[in-house]
Amino acid sequence: MNSIINNFKFRLILAFAGIYIIWGTTYLAITYGLKGFPPFILSGLRFLIAGSIILGWLCARGEKPNSLTNWYKNFIPGLFILAAGVGLVAWGEQYVTSTEAAIIMATEPFWFILLDRKNWSKYFSSPLVVSGLLIGIGGLLLFVKDSLFNGAHNNYGGLRFTAIGVLFISSVIWVVGSLFSKNRASSHSIFMNVAQQLIVGGILSFGIATAAGEWTTLQWTAIPTKAWGGLLYLIIFGSIAAYLSFIWLLSVRPPALVSTHTYVNPVVAVLFGWLIANEKISATQSWGLAIILFGVILTNSTSYSVSKRTKVRFRPILRVLNRVFSPYRHITHY
Q1: 113-136 pLDDT per residue, tens
Q2: Contact 294, 139 (CB under 8 A)
Q3: What residue ranges do the domains of the chain occupy?
């Protein structure tokens, strides 16, 4: 048994299963958690408990979080990625389905390209990236149009429009926090960084909950078992198992390969939302999802190594795309 657990390939399979399946199901777990907890209290409990567990384990191993500089560097990701990014997802899921939230959050690669100004010359010199952006935007428009007017939660009225807008803002905030974290790395170990970010995210989420008056609406004795189960799942699997799997995979596998979870998470969310919560997705929304995922794959295509034989096969298509999008390359000079 020990030989199996210590097998590197076996750990790779487990880690990819974590970011593919677990992260795809956390949207549904948030829906269950919201049956008893307000959104930012749910997020605060999730992050603070998970971060404290990881920090306690690290301290027991002799690693101490005694650098104020590193706490500051982890404060920004804790604020943008967790408290604001994930917290707004929880808020938005009060008025949209978990499948819709997952599909909207799949737009993060697009925002990453648009906001990562240092690499604009690389991104926009590629016809595949430009075409992927335009195709993805078309899929978004198709999906959002159908979600706004034919969604399952239309009884929420204007709040449904607001929630979809908030989810888009959440995906942008997540990318901003990720870019900051990438460019200002902490000197702590990866696990300590995760623990500190989770703790900061939990404390800030509680601060937002206090400002929003969520504590006055919380009734501990009335919280159903489903909500406690959703919170427990988010702590153990979403914020510890999957998040640590993601960080570990980044250290042993190319980022482009790890980022494939972006393609899989919405599909998993749609499947589990349909199987467990009876959430429905229309034919138009399905087409929108497929177009979005195709656009995401195109925008990330330059990150993958392609064999010479494959390049030869796709050379005619690349020539056509180059002729179509080459007039727009001047935007890289701005």
Answers
A1: 788 777 777 777 778 877 877 887
A2: yes
A3: 2-333
